[in-house]
Amino acid sequence: MYYPEPISKLIDSFTKLPGIGPKTAVRLAFFVLEMEEYDVLEFGKSLVNAKRELTHCSVCGQITDQDPCSICQDEARDNSLICVVQDPKDVIAMEKMKEFSGKYHVLHGAISPMDGIGPEDINVPSLLNRLKDEGVEELILATNPNIEGEATAMYISRLVKPSGIRITRLAHGLPMGGDLEYADEVTLSKAMEGRREL
Fold first, then answer.
1. How confident is the prediction for the chain on average, in pLDDT?
2. Which of 34, 13, 15, 33 is nearest to 24 (CA)?
C-alpha cells in the first residue's frame, strides 16, 4: 500500500531511529497524525532545540547545554577520581546510583576493528591531556563488559599505567536476583574472578 508523500516521509524519518522497524514506524506516524497540532509543534520544537542547544562538554565530553557541564563545574566533586564511560547515557546511569563523587570522561564509543573504529576515533586524546593536568590519582574504567569495551579498557590501561595513576575496572559478574543456571560461561567466569572474602 502506498501512503501520501507526507506520511511516507514521516514513516521514513521514524525508521532512521534505532529499534524502530517499518511496522512500528507506520504506527508512530499515524499516532502523530492523531495528535493535537499544538502537541505536534511542541514535539517538533523539542527535537530542533535538543539538536541546536546541546553540545559536548569541552572537559569530559558529556552532552550538556552549558560548557563546561555542571558536573565538571561542581567544586564539591573529587578531581582525583575519573570514571571513564563509553556513552553519555552511562554518566546518567552512574549518577542515578548516587554513590560516585568523582568526575567523568565520555569516550563516545569503543575500539572495534570490525566496525573500523580505532583508538583515534574515540575521545582518548583529551583523556590523556586531563590526566596530565588535573592531579588524577585513580582512573575507573567503566566501559561495557563486551569485547569492544574490554579492548578499550585494556588499551587505555596500557597507555596510562606508566604514569603511575591507579587504574581500576568495574566488577563484572552475576546480577542481584539472577540465577546461576541462566548465566553464561563468560559471566560466571568474571564473577569467579571478582569474588571477595565475606
1. 90
2. 15
